[in-house]
Amino acid sequence: EVQLVESGGGLVQPGGSLRLSCAASGFTFSYYWMSWVRQAPGKGLEWVANIKEDGSEKYYVDSVKGRLTISRDNAKNSLYLQMNSLRAEDTAVYYCARSFLRSSGYFDYWGQGTLVTVSS
Amino acid sequence: DIQMTQSPSSVSASVGDRVTITCRAGQGISSWLAWYQQKPGKAPKLLIYAASSLQSGVPSRFSGSGSGTDFTLTISSLQPDDFATYYCQQAHSFPWTFGQGTKVEIK
Asked: How distant is the Cα of B28 from the closest Cα of chain A, in angstroms?
């Protein structure tokens, strides 16, 4: 059974840092592009970043470039999101998601999400 | 960025009704479109990809159509489990973007 389990969320002050993790199981993690997608409280979905199977390519939405960094460790079947210089507008539930059909933007499996709250 | 606009924002319907949700892309995206269902407190679930391909395990009462800029999601006979919020998403070009969502409520 495919499982994605996020962790690392919490309350952080504006300007602070946080590192999210996503533990993958039930599939060959190194074969898939992976993404982070977020959802602000009561709002819609926003794709944040994605990373190629081997980590050699990464893409970001403009609003997080230079502040959030996606990475992966295929030996540990894990995806990460390093979040620096956090802002109130980064407050959201962060989901890791697997890309269906190689590098496509279709997400067939999602984690349960981890809540990041940026507030003083 | 490609803007995705869904209509309506919400719809009230009864079990057994046919429900249609529309999604319009700000520019042509060929068939690079997905539909997701999300229930409160849960992660989204992929229903349709490539505009009209049904994801494995999704009931056949869900169907998608369209290409270019105009797309529809149709639920042929609404079931109790279908009351949720539905999102379209373009996968044509970065950044991938979602519609604002359509909430399907019980009438």
From this structure: 16
